[in-house]
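Session log. Operator J.P. requested a structure for one protein chain; no other inputs attached. Running the standard single-chain path with C-alpha cell output.
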Amino acid sequence: DEQPDVQGLAVLLSSERYATNSPIEYSDVAAYRLSLGEDTKAINQLNALIQEGKEMASLLYTYRSCVKALPQLPDSMKHSQADLYLETYQVLDLEMSRLREIQRWQASAASKLAADMQRFSRPERLVNGPTVTHFWSMLKLLDVLLQLDHLKNAKASIPNDFSWYKRTFTQVSTQWQDTDTMREELDDLQIFLSTRWAILLNLHAEMFRTNTVEDILQVLIVFCVESLELDFALLFPERHTLLRVLPVLVVLATSSEKESESLYKRVKINRLLNIFKNDPVIPAFPDLHLSPAAMLKELSSYFQNFSSQIRLLTLPAPHEIPPRELQDYQRHYLILNHMGTIRAEHDDFSIRFASAMNQMITLKSSDGADNDWSRDIKGNMYDTVVEGFQLLSRWTGRIWEQCAWKFSRPCKEPPISDSQQDSATFFDYEKVVRWNYTAEERRALLELIGYIKSIGLMMQHCDTLVSEALWETIHMEVQDFVQDKLDTMLRTTFRKKKDLSRILSDMRTLSADWMANTSKADPEQHSLHQETEEMRQSTFYPRPVAPTAAQIHCLQFLICELVSGGNLRKPGGLFGNSSSGIPVEDLKQLETFFYKLSFFLHILDFTATIGTLTDLGFLWFREFYLESSRVIQFPIECSLPWMLVDHVIESQDAGLLESILIPLDLYNDSAQHALTYLKQRFLYDEIEAEVDLSFDLLVQKLNEVIFTYYKSCAASTLLDSSFTYACDDGEKYFVKPLRFDAIFKLRRVMILGRTIDLRSLITQRMNKLFRENIDFLLERFEYGDLCGVVELQQLLDILELTHQSISRFLELDSYSLMISEMQENLSLVSYSSRISSQIWNEMQTDFLPNFILCNTTQRFVRSLKGAHHSSQRSDASTGKPYFYCGSHDLTMAYQGLAGLYRDFFGIPHMFAVVKLLGSRSLPGIIRALLDHISSKITAMVPKVTGLQEALPKSIGLLSFDGGIAGCQKIIHEILTWEAKSDVKVEVLHDLKEIGSALYWMSLLDIVLRQIDTTQFMQSAPWLGLVPGNDGQVKHAYSDNTPFTTLLSAATSAVASSPACANPSSYLVMSKQAEAA
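Structure written below.
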C-alpha cells in the first residue's frame, strides 16, 4: 500500500550481545601473542561487574516504597497487630535482602576495581596494559558505582522502608534466638544507607590501601579530558560517562598535595574548569541529573585533601549560576536556540545520504565497474554513515542535556488555569516538565524527535544495501594503513629502531590481509632492500571482511605502546609531546587511525548503534519524582510524550500534523527499556496502560480536528462571497490549509508490538461523529420554533459538504443513510421523520395559533397581542463548537445570517422546508394540514350556529338621520353578542388558522413551482428540448437526444473493452434506458 513512514524504527524485544562487546569475550586475543592475558582477563571481569552493576542500578531506580501500601488497622483489630508486624516484616525483608545484596556487591566491585588499578599501576611493569578497552571498562564500572551512590542518596523511600523494617524487626525478633548476627547486618546496612557517598568512600579506601593507583588515575583523567576535548566518543552515552566520572577521578587523584601537583602538571586545571563550566548539568538517569560543581563541593567535606582545591570548589552549582551566565547556558542547553542549525544539518544530510544511496544502487546494477570508482562510492557511503551517526548522537545528546537542564531549573510559578483555581498545588514533576516547556520549546523538541526518528529509519532501511560497502571500506582503511603506511614507516622512520619496528610488525601480522594483496612481497625484504617509488605502493582489493573486536582492541593497544612506550607518566597526553622521537607526520597518521578504530566497532554494529542513538524512551520515565510526589501515578497531562501529541493537536501546526505519531514511538522506546534494561514488568504495565489511554485520546482528538477542519472548509465554501468581501476582516472566514493525507493512509501503526489500523478507527469514529452531529442539530431544532428551519437547513448543508470532502479519503457511511437513521425514517413504509413531525407539531401548537400574515411581504410574523396557546420550551443543550460551523468566527457569521430569519416565516423558510422534507415526507405535511382545516371547519360549525342564534330574526333599513355613527350605534344595540364573546373570539381565531394554513400551502405551491421550473430548465437541453419562437418548448432533435447519444457512446465503450465480462447485458440496459 501507500502508507507513508511517519513512525520511527519498530522496536524488537531482544537482548543479544553485540559486536562492540566481543561476543567471545576476547578469547581470541591470546592467538596474537601480545602478552595481554592479564589485561583480557581483567576486561572480562570488569565487564561482568558492569553488567551486574547496571542490574543493581535498575533495581534501585525502580524501587518503590512498600510502606505506602501498608494497611492501617482500625481500633477493633488492634489484637491482630502482632500478625501485621510479622507480615510487614516478611514483605520488607525481601526488599531489604536486595539492598543487602547491593551493599555486598558494591564492596566486592570496589575491591576488584581497586585491585585491578593497582595491578596495572606497578612501576616495574610486570604485565602489558591497560589497553584502551580496559580504560573504558574501568570508567564504566566507576560510572556504575557513582550512579548507585547517587541513587542511594536520592531515593527517600529506601531509608523510610528501612526504618519500618528495623521497627518491625524489633517487634518480631523478641521471640527469636541468636539474632546478634542479624542485628550486625542490620547495623551495617543502616550505616550504608544513611551515609552519603558511602560507595565512593569505600572505593577510595580500597584504592589507597597501597599508594600505587595515582598513576592510573592520572592516566584515566588525561584520557577523559582528551576524549572530551577531541570529541573522541562517537556515541553520546560514552560522552556522558566521561563527564560523570571525571569529577570523581579528580577527587580521588588529589588524595594528597603532592599528587594534586603532579596531576596539574599533566592536565592544566583550566582544562578541567572549562569542561566543568561547559557542562554544569549532566544526565544520570531519565529524571535524575548530576552537577560536577555540586558534586565537588559535597565530596570536599568527605575528602579532606580535596578541600584545598579552591578553584574547583568555587564553580557555581546550577542554582547558583549568575543571571548573566544563566542566559548563555539557556542558549546552550535549549534545543530551540539550535533549531536553525539542526534543520540545515538534517536537510543537507538527507540529500547527501539519498545521493549516496542512489550511487550505491547504480553501482550494484552495473557490471564490471571501475575499481577506483567503486572505492570512491563505497568510501563516500562510509563517510556519510559516520556523519549520520555523529548527527544522531549529537541530537539525542542534546535532548538528554535539555531534560537534565529542565530538571535542574524547575518552573517557579506555574500558570493557574480556570480549571485549577480550586487546587493551586502542583506536583514537583509538573514544575520540571508540564509547566517548564513553552509552546515553542515543545515544537522544537517534537521537530528534533522527528528528525532523529526519520534519519534513523532512513539509515535502517538500507542496512543490507550498505553493509557490504561498510565492511569493504573498513577493510580497505585497515589494509591501507597496515600494508602501505606502516610499510613506509618501517622503511623510513623506524628502520633503526628495533623495538618500535617490532611493534609495527606485530600490527601488520595481526591485521594484514595478504590474501587480498596482488603485489605481496616478503615482509622481511621490505626492511632489507630499497625499492623504487612505484614498487612501494601495495595493491590490494578490498573484501567485505571486517576486523574483529579483538583485532581492533589489539591494534589500539599497539598504537598506544608505540606512541607512549609504556610510560604512564608521559606528559602531554597520548598524542601530545611525544618523547619517542616519532615525526609529527607519522604521529598524525597514527592518531587518525587510532580514533578511526574506535568508530569501526560502532559502524559494524550498524543496527545496534542506530537503536541506541534513536532510543528516546527516557522522556517517559519519572520514578524519582513519582516517589517524591507521594502519588501512585501522575495524570496523563504530565506525561511528556502525551504533551507533545497534545501540542500537535492543539496548535494544529500544518508542519507537525504528519509527525503526530512520532511521540508515540517514545512509548515503544520506554517499553523496550523497561523490559530489557530495567527488567521491570510493572513499569511495562504502566506504559501499556498509558498508551491505551493516550491512543484513545489521540484518535478522539484527531477525529475532532479533522472534522472541525473540513467542516470549517465547508462552511467557508458555502458562505456568501459578497459577505466576506464586504467585511473589513474577511480573512478570518478563510481556513488555513492542513494536510491529513498521510494520516488517512495509516493502516499499520506499530505500538508496543501491536499493529493498529488507524484509518479504520478514524473512519468508525468519524461515522459516529456525523451521527452525533445530526442528532444534535435535530434536537436543537426540536427545542426551537419553526423559524429555525433555515438555520437547520444551512447547518445540514454544511454537514453534507463536510461528508463529501471527507468521503474522498475515507469510506464513510452514506450521508442519506445517516440522515434517515437519525430521523428514524429507515422503513420503506414510513413517511414521517423527526423533522416532519417537528414541523407539524410546531405548526399545530405555535405557528398557526400565534402567527399572523403580512400580505404585503408574504410573511408570517408572531402576533404582538400574546400567544393564544403558550408553548413551554426548555433551553437546548450547548453542543461542542465543531457541531456548528467549525471555527468560532464562521459559527458567529452563520448565526448572524440565521438571525435575519428568526422573526418571520416566509419564502426562504419554505424553500428550507421543501429541501429538508423532500418528496417523501412533504405529502404527509399537506395531508395533515388538510385534516387540520377539516377539523377546524367541523369544530367551527356549531360555534357559527350559536352566533347566528344571537342575531335578530330580521333587521330593517336603518334611518340615516343619525349618520354613520348613529347607524353603528343602532346595530350595536340590536346585536346581543356580548354573551357570546368567547365563542366569537374562537370563531375568528379558527378562521385565522384556516386562512394561515391555506396561505402556507399557497407559499408551498409557489416554491414547488419554482423548483420544478429550475429542474426542468436544467434537464431540458439533455432531453433535446429548446424554446421555440412562439415561446413553446419543442424538440430540437428528430432521432436521438444528447442524453441517449451519451448513453450509447458509453455503452459501446464499455462493451468493446476487453475487461468487460458480459457486454450483452450492457447493451440490453442501454436499450431499456433509451426507451425510458
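Operator note: The CA atoms of residues 410 and 432 lie 4 Å apart.
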